[in-house]
Amino acid sequence: MKKNLFALLLFVAAALPAVALQPVKKVAPTAKKAITGVKKAVSIPPIIVKGNVQGFNDGEKIYLTIFQNRKMDRLDSATIKAGKFEMKNIKVAEPQMGYLVIGKNNDMFFDAIYLDGKVLTVNKNGKDNNNADISGSPANEASSAMNKELAPINTQMNPLREEYTKSSTTEERKKEIQEQFAKIEKQTDSIQTKYMKSNMSNLLG
User: Fold this and answer.
1) pTM reported for the whole predicted model
2) What stretch of H or E contains 74?
3) CB distance 113 to 98 below 8 Å
4) What are the distances in angstroms from CA 175 to CA 4, 148, 152, 197?
């Protein structure tokens, strides 16, 4: 049963946006809390999201999306010009987690963003998932710090996921990968718990 569950997690990891995999074990409760609005609903003013993105072409679109009704809905978009973008008058009923998306198909990059501030500033350097430094609210700033700490660990996990799903990977090797994953997940658990406990007053906690 444990082996089948592990294989299922890897299958889901391959199917979902990479931004939702930080780290795998904690995605569901974190996303559920942010998206379904565990926090009490409040009336919030329109939000501005702006910033710099390096490594992308002028004319490319950046989208702001939220997950609702079992699908991704676009709230706004902007065109990247000289590495800059700005989205104005973003309206949500309550603070929640969204995603910044650049690209399409197999060349798509995601960053989680908490829609809980008046002006959110994004600095993204390079084509990678969840590597943006986002400021403008405590949840975003804490999340950015956490992602930086998790980045080396996620780098270890990615090739293991790929190797596990290859048809050429032996059962013996898959067992070894499971053991490696278990050790890595303990590290991610420790880091996430630290940030969640210190951010109980915002969406990250």
Assistant:
1) 0.75
2) strand 71-79
3) yes
4) 12, 29, 23, 33
